């Protein structure tokens, strides 16, 4: 009896906080009914592989959004990092190439963060500043490659990052799960993580309670940059090459996944678990659209509508419709 | 006293002065600079994004933002040409007017009724409208007008200047008039400067925000129509840097990102300064990727300066 009540509470808790988990399950069932090939183990691993790239971008961006800012530059950081990781390898070796690229990702995040705190950017300013950064980094990627694609590294270790399996699971999704768990623990269990929530929830209160807002904001942007870089490793290892526009649009996909998962865009609300659910939902949706044969351009329409629907639902739930 | 006056003049007119400094200093780049052809080229180059920037001025003053103008331009161009080919110019224009109204209403519904942040609403719109443009062209191939008349709409030369430049200047003049001299304009300022105050003062804030979104869409669709005419082709991938350029011009022109202040004249100067910079870079033979990098940096710089100077003012008072 006691136990039963307890488990019911857990169910209510999950329902209230992770509504989108049910949407994910529902979506999987529907897709599986429509096309049985969906549940094929090979296909599921494919979804995982595809999701890992966007998933890493979304993980990093979650930090920024939870702290009440935006980072639109992530897609171009993925592009640039991919190009650097591939083209540095012949010169400095795999290990150093990865380290250097990570440093570049962190550096871009640092610059983003310093500008944002330097001008005391509002949420809107942070959107536009990183939008400018998106263009700048994209242009750097075009300058380095002169607009052409480069063929990937054949280093087996690097290929493993994108295509390798451990047991039956793709290495990339294990890496993603590992980072997701660490970040979730960081956000929910550490004082530093809680402070990021406070900053996102109410900047003034956070300031008055003595939190070093500048340091934490810069930190979130650096995490976002680093995560985008890891996404770039997986992407370029998987497709064995880098193009000067490979990451374009990832910022949009990541925002969509985050909102779909249930993180509030105002900041301070939601968790990494939400991000993971959102990433999986978007992974299932794009996989099924590919299976039905919807072109990637027409998928834009669907994604645009999904983003609007998700934000609208969130907003209506909180504030209701007003006149 | 005179010095003080001079300093005050420099402070209020710093943009115009900056414009002339760049104008004169870049004239040393080439003997060809002060020629009529080059000046006409300069105006022709800035006219499309200039129209977009005028529309963008309204939405920024009203306290919102529209990042989807590039996609709307491409969509407008694609619809204009495909309907021009199949149903004629008149139907094409009527449909574009309807498109403007629909976009304005959609955005105002999402931002005011559902209360979505306008960045996110227009980010979704950016992807969505680009998708619609691709859908219309089926496989994304650019479409060309059937006959030569369509191109004449923008490129017919009057006194040696293409018509598109006149459209741009007329659009600027009407925008400036509407914003400064009409109730519509003044209430858009009021709505942007304080939504709640304007609402309590009896301003129909919903209407004026809708108007601002609609005017912004109007600028983008009109620019799209002209873009297809100027280049005699409509491509669904076109104008992907319109939002960046227009926003840069608006911010450089002194329109506040928090809404409530700014002017079309400022935007015009912003557009011209950016045009001069592009013109100079082209003359120096700087490659287009580097120009893109410079554009990105300039946007960051303008926003930073705008916000930084605003912060200083607020801490001083």
Task: Describe the 3D structure.
The complex is a heterodimer of chains A (323) and B (317). Chain A has 323 residues and is an all-alpha fold. Chain A contains 14 helices and four strands. In chain A, helix 4 (74-92) runs antiparallel to helix 5. The model of chain A has no long low-confidence stretch (mean pLDDT 86). Chain B has 317 residues and is mainly α. Helices cover 77% and strands 1% of the residues of chain B. Chain B contains 14 helices and two strands. Chain B has helices at 2-12, 14-26, 36-61, 69-87, 89-113, 118-136, 149-155, 163-181, 183-193, 195-200, 205-231, 242-252, 264-283, 288-316; strands at residues 157-158, 161-162. In chain B, 49% of the residues are buried. Classes of the chains: A mainly alpha (323), B mainly alpha (317). Chains A and B meet through helix 6, helix 12 and helix 14 of A and helix 6, helix 12 and helix 14 of B.
How far is the N terminus from the C terminus of chain A? 48 Å
Helical segment count of chain B: 14
Number of E-type strands of chain A:
4
Structural class of chain B, please? mainly alpha
Rg of chain B, Å, rounded: 20 Å
What is the number of helices of chain A?
A: 14
Q: Biggest interface and its residues per chain?
A: A-B, 50 and 47 residues
Order of strands across the main sheet of chain A: 1-4
Shape of chain B: globular
> Describe the biggest sheet of chain B?
2 strands, antiparallel
Radius of gyration of chain A, in Å, reads 20 Å
Strand order of the largest sheet of chain B: 1-2
Taken from the alpha-carbon principal axes, the silhouette of chain A is globular
β-sheet strand percentage of chain A: under 5%
Number of strands of chain B: 2
